[in-house]
Amino acid sequence: MSKIAWGILGCARIAERALIPAIREAANAELAGIAARDERRAREWADRFGIPKSYPDYAALLDDPGIDAVYIPLPNHLHAEWAIRSAEAGKHVLCEKPLALTEGEARAMFGAAKTAGVLLMEAFMYRFHPRFERALEMVRAGEIGEILTFRSAFTFLFTSGREDYRWSPEMGGGALYDVGCYPVSAARTVFGGEPVSVFARARLHPECGIDLATSLLVEFSGGRQALLDCAFDTPFQSSIEIAGTNGRIALPRAFSAKHFDLPIDVVKEEEIKAVPIPASNQYIRMVEHFGEGILRGAPLRYAAEDALGNARLIDAAFRSLRHRRPESLA
Hints:
Blueprint: E1 4-9, H1 13-25, E2 29-35, H2 39-49, E3 53-55, H3 58-62, E4 69-72, H4 79-88, E5 92-95, H5 103-116, E6 120-122, H6 130-140, E7 147-157, H7 175-191, E8 197-204, E9 211-219, E10 225-231, E11 233-244, E12 247-251, E13 262-268, E14 271-277, H8 282-296, H9 304-323, E15 327-328
Parallel strand pairs: 1-2, 1-4, 2-3, 4-5, 5-6, 7-10
Antiparallel strand pairs: 7-11, 8-9, 8-15, 9-10, 11-12, 12-13, 13-14
Helix pairs in contact: 1-8, 4-5, 5-9, 7-9
């Protein structure tokens, strides 16, 4: 096998805008099929994007022995069910973030993947962009000294109609699950370890109850702190700032680099140095990385423990919101 035959479960916007083009352009992948709850819609998407097969439902795609791996962009509350069913069908799984609604769900998903001998990865594409990779190299090399504070925000004005699952607490809606998971992931990645506590405060929607905006104060060992913001009711932000004893690193459009040429800004005393990074398709790089894990047995850069750590921190943040106090993760 020289290329992974991919199937997509669901006609989601992220699949249309990002993953369908990425799978088609990845060197080690081919887009073989798409399924939807509505057979007609799956057929329309197959015709529209030149996908060889469409299926009347998700289970029919999983029954096809010609599909090697699946991408799951379903509403958050369906991730665990269909990742487990995909693994049990012998399919490798790239699942949209957040991987699961709880750490318990995530553990069950990885347990099913391990039993079936397939790979499972949470689809945080930003970590495969050369800019984030280079920023991590700079941090690890000590270019701004010891890292003390991490700040990140991911916000936008969410205007979709009430039929969108993001308005539903039961379906895993709200800002923390939808965009807050990115700063959570980035903070853990930059600090290279697990936090010891989190204190969360939120602004809730008065009718449906989702968190419109959530702020987290996350403490790591040695008094290091991460200040994380996410929101559905604030104009667009997508930023990371890493502060060390000798300077700062700033990433504009940290989670949404897309096709832009964007620098890494390194600030030391009065000097600001812009490190140029050319545009790169982070989705293609993610698909190819996952494919190398399937084809060559290459270790995944971000595997089970990483996704479980994200879920554990988000679980604790929701407990903090309920109890209105810091929650320990130690």
